[in-house]
Amino acid sequence: MRKLKYPALIFIMFLFIISFHLDAQGKISGVVFGDYYYMFSNHNPGIEGMNGFWFRRLYLTYDHNLSSAFKIRIRFEAYSKGDFSTKEEIIPHVKDIYIQWSKNGQSIILGLSPTPTFGKIEKFWGYRAVEKTPLDLYKMAHSRDTGIAFKGKIAKGKIYYHLMFANGEGNKSEFNKQKKVMGAIGFYPTGNLYLEFYSDYESGPINRTDVYTLQGFIGFAMKKFTFGAMYANQIHQLGEEDLKLRVLSITTVFDVSQKITLFGRYDRMMDPLPAGPAISYLPMDSSSPFSLVIGGMDYKISSSFSLIPNIEFVIYDKLNSNDIVGKLTFLYKW
Length: 334
Fold this sequence. Notes:
Layout: H1 5-21, E1 26-41, E2 51-65, E3 70-79, E4 91-103, E5 106-114, H2 119-125, H3 134-137, E6 144-154, E7 159-166, E8 180-187, E9 193-202, E10 211-221, E11 225-236, E12 243-255, E13 260-269, E14 290-302, E15 305-316, E16 323-333
Antiparallel strand pairs: 1-2, 1-16, 2-3, 3-4, 4-5, 5-6, 6-7, 7-8, 8-9, 9-10, 10-11, 11-12, 12-13, 13-14, 14-15, 15-16
């Protein structure tokens, strides 16, 4: 990992240099979040009692308007690996790098950009600093991919769409002939209500399987209260017996005051999760269905800095032990 250190520093310096030399159409922004965590209980006895500080994400973003129609984005990300078995340095890489053409509310995006899978869901949840949305957390989908995307609103803003044709490898390079097609279509029946249907298909190369995903979401937002519910069904075609992954998630967020927000979330994974042990920061058992319960409070010290005490419970159907981790999450942005 050390060999990545100096290129990462050079990249950061490059962003700052160009921000000072380009005109006011360029902008640098950033987000950092991490935790002090304590693993109160875990299905793996070797992890129980582990505790410490870690930076889970650092985002450094440069946006620049080339003209009234074209803009570019370069986003650098650094993160801790979240692996309890090895010591790792903070790992840097490029999160976004794309050019976007926009006109009359319609956009075409070329490059490494956000996928249609859970962007709207993450906005309703609002607490990526605490935990990822379900398909992201359970390694059922990528947050980014390289390809071409079309997005916008039609019907006087009542209908939202986001379509993408991409490699299917996330932020990694392509290595096979197969591709992934993703599409989300959303509806705003009222100003407070949002409905979305999402589907994708990924053609699998040798030693991998074709994957289909169907997902539905409903979100309701008022001035001080937000509610979201999603259900996803993913099928990995294995031949004689397919692998099915089904997950339900419900989220609530309530603003008690200008400085205090309460939030809760319930996920129900109805099938054993093969990728469970590889989940960063909260490795899960792969042999049992489970429920994930998250609760916490966001204390906004300022508009750019929050302290967020929270706790996560993973309750297994078939195990005698469960996972319980308490965290004091910190979030700051500029």
